[in-house]
Amino acid sequence: MSLIKFEEVLNDLVDYFLIGDPYLLMDFKRKHQLPDDLITEFTTTDEGDRVVEEGVMIPLTGISNYPYTVYFNLNGNSPELLKAENQLQLQQDGYKLQVKYGVIYLYTIPYLRNFIAEPLVTLEKRSTRISLPNGWYKFAVLAGETEQETGMEPTFEFIITAVSDEPDFTADIQYRFTIDASEY
Q: What pTM value is reported for the model?
């Protein structure tokens, strides 16, 4: 396992990022007979809470329109955002995520507007993603700024820990991940 870094990750002008296995989300949609417009479904019914509490996806709200540095921390070492030269601003523990198809994506909410097979192909080509063995994971989300070559950059770091059994969900679904960026 390792630390995987992505630079210049954009939020498509919408104040959300989503993390998850989109093929597992498609399974969830079919199992619960949800409409193609998952944005409306998730924001007007309890299905949005259920999809998060069941570990299908993690929503990050309050995302400002900046380019982000994103770390997937899989090595259990000290998080980048806790190093002396960086500034941790937000932390939310208690998320869980299931991986069923060997990959998770960091993607944006417009993909949920018409969540059918064809947009998944585009999602595969355009989104930040990492491969993970199938199973359950505990997730912590750290946010703040990290020192990069260009100066202090808004940053998200996902602390991902494999677990043998489904973990409890204890995160605050309504938590807002708005970073105060000193250079923007």
A: 0.93
Tokens representing residue 61 in the block: 């709200």
Structure tokens at 45: 């019914």
Residue with tokens 């939310």, as numbered in its chain: 92
Distance CA 17, CA 176 (A): 11
Tokens of 35: 């409409």
Distance between CA atoms of residues 137 and 168, nearest Å: 10
Go through 6-45 and write b for each residue having 16 or more CB atoms within 10 A of its CB, e for each that does not. eeebebeeebbbbbbbbbbbbebbeeeebeeebbebbeee
Q: Which two tokens stand for residue 89?
A: 């601003």
CB contact at 8 A, 152 and 182: yes
What are the pLDDT digits (tens) for 115-164?
988 777 777 777 789 999 999 999 999 999 999 998 999 999 999 999 99
Q: Which residues pair with 60 in a beta bridge?
A: 17
Contact 63/178 with Cβ under 8 angstroms? yes
Q: Where are the alpha helices (DSSP H) in 97-161?
A: 117-126
Report how far residue 147's alpha carbon sits from residue 136's, in angstroms, rounded to the nearest whole number: 32
